[in-house]
């Protein structure tokens, strides 16, 4: 079990730098974002089937630190590129240029952040399936693993 004091708390406002990686560690990145601005989940087929949970930032707030040579690229259309590690298969980040989302952006897979506690961060659910990017709902993230760790263990 990870040490909860080593996890980065994300609920207080302010721009922070987060580090992330794929499962095997071949692809590593940094991203600057303010967790109080919320995150996104999209209902398009690629995001749904890969359980994508992202945060959108301007291109200068994302830095690929290593692994460019092992990145694969999946594109549903020219406006969006889903980048994944060809070693372990994890979808690490994406980038594109979608006017409805504010133009050019990078989006990191928040499931790939190292040591970040995201409990309570707002998730905006977007309609990418129909390319409207309309906000469908907003809800706070609840980490099911932290909730289980905090619950009393049944006695045998």
Automatic annotation (TrEMBL):
<feature type="domain" description="CENP-V/GFA">
    <location>
        <begin position="18"/>
        <end position="134"/>
    </location>
</feature>
<dbReference type="InterPro" id="IPR052355">
    <property type="entry name" value="CENP-V-like"/>
</dbReference>
<keyword id="KW-0479">Metal-binding</keyword>
<dbReference type="InterPro" id="IPR006913">
    <property type="entry name" value="CENP-V/GFA"/>
</dbReference>
<keyword id="KW-0862">Zinc</keyword>
<protein>
    <submittedName>
        <fullName>Aldehyde-activating protein</fullName>
    </submittedName>
</protein>
<dbReference type="Pfam" id="PF04828">
    <property type="entry name" value="GFA"/>
</dbReference>
<comment type="similarity">
    <text>Belongs to the Gfa family.</text>
</comment>
<dbReference type="InterPro" id="IPR011057">
    <property type="entry name" value="Mss4-like_sf"/>
</dbReference>
